[in-house]
Amino acid sequence: MLDLHRFVGGAAVVFTGSTSYLSCSTPTIEFGVNEILIPFASSYRPAAVAWGVIALYLLLAVEITSLLRSRLSKRAWRVTHFLSFPLFMLATAHGVTAGTDKDTFLLRAAFILVTAAVGGLTALRVLDVDDQRAPSVLPEAG
After folding, report:
1. What is the rounded CA–CA span in Å between residue 33 and residue 45?
2. Phi and psi (nearest 5°) for 81?
3. Closest to 100 measured CA to CA, from 28, 9, 8
4. Residue 90 to residue 99: CA distance in whole angstroms
5. What are phi and psi of 140, to 5 degrees?
6. Looking only at Cα atoms, what is the longest distance across the chain?
7. What backbone torsions phi and psi does residue 4 show, to the nearest 5 degrees?
8. Residue range 51-104, pLDDT digits in tens
9. Cβ distance 48 to 92 under 8 Å?
10. What is the per-residue burial (b if ≥16 Cβ within 10 Å, else e) of 80-95?
11. Most exposed among 79, 86, 101, 142, judged by the fewest C-beta atoms under 10 Å?
12. What predicted TM-score, i.e. pTM, was given to this entire model?
């Protein structure tokens, strides 16, 4: 499961880089480095693009600290890794509002399914953590 988790994180970085590159090379919309790296610098759907830019920075923070996990305190890594939740929300908002294909049924259905899956799995994880933290009753040594 950890290998899958790492693969998905790495794939997110690759796909984000590919999307950024392709956005800069699209002739119909003028995107440059500033529009990719500075929130609200884009004249094309500025808020929607800004959500993507902020999500990019959160993704980089999560990925870099994951690669450096052995050199960080557990608390520092965990706090940074929790940025995955706002990252997911911002990236989803960006995808739903910024893309030229945002109104297609298939893309909307994919966003709904993925959001439901992430929400459900997050709830399971939170419930599982609560179970793990419950004090155990040990028999008294006699």
Report:
1. 16
2. -65, -30
3. 28
4. 14
5. -70, 140
6. 79
7. -65, -45
8. 999 999 999 999 999 889 999 999 999 999 999 999 999 999 999 998 778 889
9. no
10. beebbeebbebbbbbb
11. 142
12. 0.79
Find out whether 36 and 20 touch, Cβ atoms under 8 Å.
Answer: yes
Q: Look up residue 7 and give its two tokens.
A: 């693969």
Evaluate whether 97 touches 48 at the Cβ level (below 8 Å). Answer: yes
Q: Measure the CA–CA gap between 7 and 29, rounded to whole angstroms.
A: 31
Q: What is the sign, positive or negative, of the torsion defined by CA atoms of 12, 18, 20, 26?
A: negative
Cα angle for residues 76, 116, 77 (degrees, 5° grid): 5
User: What is the per-residue pLDDT across 11-67, written as a single tens digit (0 to 9) for each?
Assistant: 999 999 998 888 888 777 788 888 989 999 998 899 999 999 999 999 999 999 988
Q: How many residues does the chain have?
A: 142
